[in-house]
Write a structure and sequence with these properties.
mainly alpha; 5 helices; about 0% strand
Length: about 180
Amino acid sequence: MNTRSTGPDADLPSSLAEPIRRRRRRHRIVLAWTWVVLWAGVIWVLGGDGFSDSATRPELLEWLRRLFGEFDPQTRRRMLLALRKSAHFVEYAILAVLTFRAALISAGRNQLASAAWVALFLVATLATADEARQAFSPVRTGSPYDVLIDIAGGAVAVAGLHLVTRRMRAPGPSPAPERA
């Protein structure tokens, strides 16, 4: 069995290759958590007054008209509500994916459950903080229902990632014995 590593530092002596691998791993961890922080910043900005319903309604209505044509006021309200709540679900699902990945890269071994809990904790914490901030805004309303939608987006993403990651890491079926 060949235990020699492959890759760009395969020909280096182990005394030099190991520090390079550690540095690359640290770089990957920092980069992964940087994406988490950047996406959390995007969510925080989107939760501000500049992206309230009253601030974004005219543009969203124009896009909806271009895509679907004219429609009655009740349908318009429903479409806007569905669009805004879907945005909650998706943006927190993305946060959960990024956090799960960063936590998994940071873990020393197969820590799928820990990565899932870290992702859900961050999703719930940011969702709660954002809605609490909106409760004190003159143009926004903080809603516990939005927190539940946010957590649901994160939970669906984490459950999917957990399932996919477990299947990818599971040993495959052993090959059938050859017959003579």
